[in-house]
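SAMPLE LOG
Freezer: B-3
Tube label: C17
Construct: single chain, 469 aa
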Amino acid sequence: MKKSQIILQVFLALSLSIVNAAWAVTVPAIFNDHMVLQQNAEVTIWGSGKSGEEVTVTGSWDNKPVKTKASNLAKWSVKLKTPAAGGPYTVTIKGYNTIVINDVLTGEVWLASGQSNMEWSAAAGIDKAEQEIPKANYPEIRFFSVAHQTADGPQLDLKGEWVVSTPETMKHFSAIGYFFGRELHHELNVPVGVINSSWGGTPGEVWVNPEVIAGDPVLTKAAAQQKEVEYGPIQPGKAYHAMIAPLIPYRIAGALWYQGESNTSAPEAYATLLPALINNWRSEWGYDFPFYFVQIAPYKDYGPYAGALLRDSQRKSLNTPGTGMVVVSDIGNNDDIHPRNKLDVGKRLANLALNKTYGKTERPASGPLFRDMKVEGRKVRLFFDYAENGLVSKGKALTNFEIAGEDQNFVKADARIEGNTVVVQAKSVKNPVAVRYEWSNAVNPNLYNKAGLPASSFRTDNWPVKQQL
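STRUCTURE (predicted):
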């Protein structure tokens, strides 16, 4: 064969490979080996392809092909009905080329997000790490860690991959996400997939579509108070565009959230921000999935009231339907913004989900949450949710209660438990009108329900709070 013919054949082969590559059907990184798809659901599989290209997607659980064509924007998507928990399966995507995704399980999929306390791994240092890491061999628990990225507009893909839970993979994954997933796996006996999209030090605004922030003057003002830091973005939407938007509409059972430490510069605005984030995500996904969050732990260096105000804003966010809150003030560390007890945080989130999402009502969902108050002469009686079986004090007497009259001057109060209520009074306050509990930055609770979970801090007033931030 002449040299010119060889060169021509090589040229044609290369040209054909380039054309084939250009026409190749592709899928985002969230679709890869070892992934978990939400069971008993209609899940969306999507990707890119040549405009007009016929794309066929088949799940091996029923071998029923679903066909579509790539749009004039070179995008395609299909919906597959998944079976009850099981696997492993394959998902085959066929266009001009073929993609086979192996070792696919169907089970429960949860998205975990927030800042450093959600991102914190066993490798970073947690209580009982030496005992927990070697036990992390769970073939039916899978992790997907989203790499840190920012963007100015919604992205189509992100960096990450699904991995099977082993001592090595667990060590570098969100500890809370792992312990949550393990508890669900044990209780429900189904595969569990946890997607972790977190970034330490980030304020809540970066995780919301920036249009939501721009459309609300309270949120706009609060976002403007954020100061540049070297360890992450502060501008609205930067992480949302790059680390949340590319996951949509991957079907999830619900979301977990542990964030707020970086919003203590405008703590009262968080009562607007968190519901806005929840509603934004639900709107983008197209359905109202459960959203469970962790109340930030006490920490001495926020300032005297910033932490209390932020925690109270989180408590108020429970007015958003389909939400739940885990209180961790009893397992925090006043001297460390990163408490190392992640095991109990994960378990409490799992109990909350098991109770509210999966109907396991024997699991304790929450500690006491203030509901209402009644003035009885010189006393105030406080009523709580999640106190049906009674309240208990861990210690000889209840502490951290304050009471005030119309002068708004709070003084230390005596408090006692009467059944599932608390009665509060102070000798110097003859006509009480307001009560606060744990109303400082670094405090430790001793009011619990019979399930052993601590009460959230709260205040019954809405008076302005002078604070040193």
